[in-house]
Amino acid sequence: MSSSKARRPTHADFVLDNQGRPAIERYTPNERSNHWITAICFVLLALSGLALFHPALYWLTALFGGGPWTRILHPFIGVVMFVSFLVLVIRFWHHNFLDANDRQWLRQTGDVVNNREERLPPVGRYNAGQKLLFWVLVVSMLCLLLTGLVIWRAYFSHLFPIGIVRLASLLHAFFGFVIVCAIIVHIYAAIWVKGSIKAMTRGTVSYAWARRHHRGWYGEVVERESALARDRAAPRG
Length: 237
Hints:
mainly alpha, three-stranded antiparallel beta sheet, disordered N terminus
């Protein structure tokens, strides 16, 4: 076996899926771990936030050891989620700017919802819907952090007038609602587009999946791999 095949594959190399078939690495193990840490924190925050939001949902505090522990843990989990999400932003922000193809994609929402992807312009690593969702999450996360700090009674709320604390509480609930809706859309889209969940659990997607759903990104990957193959085949001096 040659040394090029013996070394561990990277995002620039040929990889195999869990069944030994040629595949494209969409997310590295580190990226997937980062995503799932953020996701787990979100679930914990959604449950604890709902428990604190309305008396009818107070029973959810039992999941966290009771009301006092729920109030203590909620902001700390929020800080962990924000830091984890910030790492995701640093990793992926440059893939999430809208271009001309994205704007055309948005104008063809009828083709999008009816799965007529052959009529859509080539999509890069993320489509326009995913990019808009990304920025909604960025804004919501930042607003939740800032308002959360203002109403964090143990450390910061005493530094602000009561009117600011009350406004921050309302805004915190509002952006909590926005982010819950955004994540529901995110989960629904991942289930709707078959193969998307595998990308975040196993890390790879098939060439057919990439060609169908992200033709622009697929072309970049094939071009990169072709260049890598030519480089490997070139005689060594």
